[in-house]
Structure formats: C-alpha cells, structure tokens
Amino acid sequence: MYPALRRTPLHALHQSLGVRFTDFAGWSMPLRFSGETAEHNTVRSSAGIFDLSHMGQLAVDGPEAGRALDYALVGSISPLAVGAARYTMLCHDNGGILDDLVAYRLAPDRFLVVANASNTPVVLAALRDRLDGFRAQARWEHRVLLAVQGPHAERIVNCPDASALKYYQAVATELAGRPVLVARTGYTGEDGFEIFCEPADAAVLWSAFAPALPAGLASRDTLRLEAGMALHGNELHVGVSPFEARLGRLVDFTKPDFVGRTALLRRADQTPRTLLVGLTSTGRRAARAGYAIVDPSTGARIGTVTSGAPSPTLGRPIALGYLATAYAEIGTTVAVDIRGTAEPFTVTACRFYSRRDA
Amino acid sequence: MHLPSHLHYSVDHEWADNLSGVARVGITDFAAEALGDIVFVELPGEGTAVMAGEPCGEIESTKSVSELYAPVTGTVVAVNPEVVADPGLLNADPYTAGWLYAVEITAGPRLLTAEAYRELCEPS
C-alpha cells in the first residue's frame, strides 16, 4: 500500500474553491484554482496567494547555532543580523548540491531554515550530523507557510512597518490579530511576502489576504522559470555544484571550514564542463525538462533541458538547461530535440523577466 | 464533466460528431481540464490520412504537451483556423467553437457513448 498523501491545514478550504490538486513530494497540493495562465498573469499585475505549507521549516537553536550553520552550509550565516535572511545551499562533501535553502535569523541564538519539501528529511539529517559538536540543535516545525506575491502584495498583506521591511528581511508581528513571521521573500520574480503562521490561524489569514487570487503550483513554476530561479530536482541536484548552476556567489570561501569547502574550491578554479543557460525560441513548440540540446550542424548532443514552458508573460517558449561550456555564450544558436524535430533556440541569460521597479 | 449525448467518444479523450460521412472531431472537456490552459495545437493538414487511435498532431499547454490522437479513420477535409489562432477555445468551448478538424470517414469507427465514456473517466 502507498502511504497517504499529506494534506496542508488549508486542504478543505482549497477543496471548497474547486481546486485541482496534484501529488507533489508526498503532498496533495493545489495545482491550479481558476487557471494557471490567469493566476500567473494576476501575480504579475496585482497579487496571488499560494499555500506553501509543504516546504520544510527547520528550527536551528542554540548558542552556537550561527557558527554551526556556517559549517553546515556554503554561505555565511553567523553575520546575519536578527531579522535578516540569506539564500544559501547545503552541499555534499563532494561539492554537489543537496538543497537550496533560505536561512532566517530570528534571534541571536535562533534560526529558521526553509528547505524543499521532498528534501526536508535529507536536510534535517545532514544538519543534525553537521551540528554535532556545536551547541546547537535542529528540529522540524510544522507551521503553515503562505506566500502573497505581486505588485499589490504590500497593500494586501498590510504588515505594520512594511515599508521598513526590505527584500530578504523578516519580522515577527501580528496580522489579523494572529502571531506571524512575515518575510519579504518569494519565488515569483515579484515583490511579495511569505507568512509563517500556526495551523489554527491559517484560514483566518488566507481570508484576510482575500484580494489576492488563489494560485497553485502550476503558476508558481512558470513564474519562477520566467524569473530565472532554479528549482531543486530540475536545475539543482547532487550531480551539479553551485558553479555549474551559476550560483557560485553563494559559496563563501572566507569561512575557514565548511562541509564541501575543499571540493568546491577545486571546482571554483576550473572552467565547468557544463553551465546553466537560458534558452528562448521564436517558434511555438516548448522545450521541456529532459529534452536533449544538440549542435544544430552536427546533431551531437551538447546539453539537456532542465525546465521549459511557453512563457505566459513573454508569449514564447523559454527554458533552462545545462549546456557544454563551449556553447554557453549568450546569443549562440543551438537546437532542442523536440520529440524528434530539431528546433532552433537561442542561448540567453537565465533570467527572462525582471519586474519594472526592481 | 460536460459530455454532450449526441457525440461519440474515444478512449483517448477525443470526440467525433458523426460515425460516417464527414465528422468534426475535437478533444473532451476531461482532456482539456487535465491539460490545463492550452496554448498551442498542431493539427493534420487538409488531405492528410488519419487513423483511429494513431497520433496525428500535438496539443501543448503551459504545463505539458501530449499527442493528439485521431478518433476516426479517414481523410482530413477541413481544419478549424480559429482554434489554431486561439487554442484557448479548447478550454472554453471544447465541443463547439473548439472543434479541431473534419474527417471524411473511410472505415467504421468504434467509439463510446457519452455514458460509457463517463464511466471510463469516472469509474463508479
């Protein structure tokens, strides 16, 4: 027998809205409510609300929690001020990416690490292993995570002192009379907020953000792809290091010791064999994850698409993929084997969309 | 799920409005809903021979792409230009404005009634 899919505390509420669910990382999650294109466009033009309670929330506490995370992760976590957040990674000792994470400092001796849903047990086990010897502990917390994303998000979330809350900052406050942690973070390329709350308060807060259109994982995927944001399982996995993924800036070699340092230092000094690139086409057929990228003259395989879709905002196919470094220069014409036909694509930067005020 | 009773349905989630002569064909509400917002259709051109149960084109949504199967065997005699220009018609109105192409049927098709097709999609 298969284990039952996990449901978020808002499952019944989603059901009442006529949502289509999808199985994702062991969870039954909203795929789309009104339609993924409408949801996508609404996040770009006003605001959408997502239930992201499947994301793993790991509390790391203790007098040496900051130093312990410096050792466990590739970024510098101990210098973060209380209320600051950092995008970072957990790497294998060989430099491969185990997960990408956001680490928030909530108090001098308290951090929140947000991991990908499917990966949370891996991250928790690795943290516990790496925290050994430090005065710090990691535990899994089961709170709700809502994201309100889009240009109207600030007005809708109506967080006290929202204007003082900068990108990648978080504050413990009250919204609709409920205790929450509000962070100005997201995965859509828009301004927006992520709100961590107790399960019992989730429905009240969801309703309080009602002007935002309920949105599912389908639109979240096209929004992050347009913004050039890597997805664990597609662009990020243990077979690549942050350098192939063009996220080498996340690795802080000024730290004297952290897991993966030796291997990452070696990789930082070499030209990667493959690099993550953006791809666009003037045609209509989209390159999809797993499709081969080939040399347009010889047909030789030179890479693999990791994510791809018709871009709702740009109106043309966009994709991310790993490409042999010799072809990775912006403007190079390559071909993608789309179900047996080589279709021309142009190499671009990974980011396809930037909001106007950013 | 909306299933007009006068149409005939294939196990591949297509419909045809006739069993002989010229039939218009399309995809069902169930298929359109499963695909999500459809953004591109590639249809067989006029004069193309299509065979029931065989792929004859493709249909692409934001989320995924799938092959389009012919529900009947015959020769394509017309293609719906509106649905090529606006594939969203397949989500909005899959049985009328969203018809895909018309086929001159050359072999007796084996298709399901609306009730049998409903049973296939929603086993009781």
UniProtKB/TrEMBL annotation, chain A:
Keyword flag Membrane: no
Binding site residues for substrate: 194
Domain Aminomethyltransferase C-terminal stretches: 276-353
Cellular component GO terms, alphabetical: cytosol; glycine cleavage complex
The entry's keywords: Aminotransferase, Transferase
Residues of the GCVT N-terminal domain: 10-255
EC numbers: 2.1.2.10
MF GO annotations: aminomethyltransferase activity; transaminase activity
Pfam family membership, one: GCV_T
GO biological process: glycine catabolic process
Catalytic activity: N(6)-[(R)-S(8)-aminomethyldihydrolipoyl]-L-lysyl-[protein] + (6S)-5,6,7,8-tetrahydrofolate = N(6)-[(R)-dihydrolipoyl]-L-lysyl-[protein] + (6R)-5,10-methylene-5,6,7,8-tetrahydrofolate + NH4(+)
PANTHER family with a match to the protein in the record: AMINOMETHYLTRANSFERASE, AMINOMETHYLTRANSFERASE, MITOCHONDRIAL
Membership in a protein family: Belongs to the GcvT family.
Protein's UniProt name: aminomethyltransferase
TrEMBL record, chain B:
UniProt keyword annotations, A-Z: Lipoyl
Cofactor note: Binds 1 lipoyl cofactor covalently.
GO process annotations (BP): glycine decarboxylation via glycine cleavage system; protein lipoylation
Cofactors required: (R)-lipoate
Stored InterPro entries: 2-oxoA_DH_lipoyl-BS (IPR003016), Biotin_lipoyl (IPR000089), GCV_H (IPR002930), GCV_H/Fam206 (IPR033753), GCV_H_sub (IPR017453), Single_hybrid_motif (IPR011053)
GO cellular component terms, semicolon-separated: cytosol; glycine cleavage complex
Positions of post-translational N6-lipoyllysine modification: 63
Domain of life, source organism: Bacteria
Stretch forming the signal peptide: none
Domain Lipoyl-binding: 22-104
HAMAP family membership: GcvH
Cited function: The glycine cleavage system catalyzes the degradation of glycine. The H protein shuttles the methylamine group of glycine from the P protein to the T protein.
NCBIfam families, per database record: gcvH, PRK01202.1
Subunit structure: The glycine cleavage system is composed of four proteins: P, T, L and H.
Official protein name in the record: Glycine cleavage system H protein
Organism of this sequence: Catellatospora bangladeshensis
